[in-house]
Structure formats: C-alpha cells, structure tokens
Amino acid sequence: MYTYSMPRTRRLLLSQSYYHIMTRGNNRNIVFKHDNDYRYYLSLISKYKDEHPFDLYHYCLMPSHVHMLVKTNIATDLSTFTINGDASLLIWVLAISVF
After folding, report:
1. How many Cα neighbours within 13 Å face the side chain of 2?
2. Are 41 and 61 in contact, with CB atoms under 8 Å apart?
3. CA angle centred on 23, ends 51 and 4, rounded to 5°
4. Alpha-carbon distance 46 to 43, whole Å?
5. So where are the chain's domains?
6. How far apart are CA 90 and CA 11, in angstroms?
7. What is the pTM of this model?
8. Order of strands, edge to edge, in the sheet holding 54-61?
9. 3-class SS at 3?
10. Which of 8, 17, 44, 63 has the fewest CB neighbours in a 10 Å radius?
11. pLDDT at 96
12. Residues 45-93: pLDDT tens digits?
C-alpha cells in the first residue's frame, strides 16, 4: 500500500545563526575509506569556507558520516556550501572507487 507523504517544508536559513550539519553516505555506506579521504574532505571544507565564509566551531568526521557545527554569515552560503561540499566528495569517492 502506498501512502502519499508531503515533502518536508523548506528550511528556514538565517544569517548569523548556528546550524548542526550532518551528512552521510547513501544507505549509511562508508564514505571515508582511507586517510586521504578525510584529508580531502577537510580541504573541501577549507576551500568552501574561503568562498562562502562561515564560522566552523566543531566537526567530527566518521567513516560513514560527518557532523559540523557552523555559524552562518549569510544565510544562502550554508546551502551553497553543503551542496558543493557533498557533490565534490561524491565525485572524489566515485573517482577513487574505480581503482
């Protein structure tokens, strides 16, 4: 039996606000398999932090997911950062999975 569910409401993003960001692998799969994977993700955070400034207070990188506590400067930068960071990590994981 199929039940229709409404899509979730759009998140309210505010400037100068704190957010807990959590992202994980599809089906909770392992994302970080090697030390280089962790280093690459940290370089992505640094890159996007320069492009879309935000304050990073804490982060925790685990094999299957990431937690970050950030404070936004401009509300729209948060979604740009998370989209670009996740896409870049996906491309990295797919590229190294081939070998």
Report:
1. 2
2. yes
3. 120
4. 5
5. 18-97
6. 23
7. 0.69
8. 18-24, 65-72, 54-61
9. coil
10. 8
11. 52
12. 888 788 878 888 999 999 998 898 888 888 776 666 666 666 666 666 5
Q: Which of 53, 24, 27 lies closest to 41, judged by CA? A: 24
pLDDT digits (tens, 9 = 90+) for 36-51: 889 988 888 888 788 8
Question: Residue 30: CB partners within 8 Å, gap ≥ 6?
Answer: 63, 64
Which CATH number is 18-97 given? Answer: 3.30.70.1290
Confidence of residue 2 (pLDDT cuts 50, 70, 90): low
Paired tokens of 93:
């994981």
CB 92 within 8 A of CB 38: no
Radius of gyration of the chain (CA): 15
